Amino acid sequence: MKKRLTIAIDGPAGAGKSSAAKGLSEQLAYLYLDTGALYRAMAWKILEGKIDPSEVSKVDLLCQCIEIKLALSETHISVWVDGKDVSSLIRSPEVTATSSLISSYPDVREKLLSVQQAFGREGGVVAEGRDIGTVVFPNADLKFFLDADISVRGERRQKDLLSQGIEVDQSKTTDDLEVRDRKDSRRPLSPLKKAEDAISIDSTNLKPQEVIDLMLNEVAILQSSRPS
Asked: pTM value?
């Protein structure tokens, strides 16, 4: 029986991480962990409670009492905040912007790190985010860094929002991504960067399944080199 791996996928927004991680997890029969959803859940609670996300001390207090957990069903993983399933409530532009801001706060990252690591402890997990291979699972069996041209990423982000019924201009989504890239890569705590042992994939001209196939090939190579 082959060892169930922990696979980390990092990269900026719009690079195709979610599609790749979901597809890869399905084809391997692994669990899919969207770590960004945890930060969005925290952001949703902040907005719901009318807390100013720029007031770090108030966000830190929230970290001490909020309960965020992942629940596994037969078909998917849902995100719960204080007993409420918020999986369908955390994809708005406001939540996205707030999650980007609070992701640099030490107390927020510490709160959510333990949730992520506990979920992936047994392997058989594909996790995607911005610091998976560098911080969350630094000893992951396999790491990927997925990227794409900013214009393509902006177009993908726009289509994603439109599918949710959110009208937005592509130039606006592209500008927002550029701002977020700068914040994520320059933040002092767990910045977005490629792990030294990560495999780079440029998804600009690739279809989602082509990205998944490249990853599956690397999984096969790794597993064939290890004893069962």
From this structure: 0.84
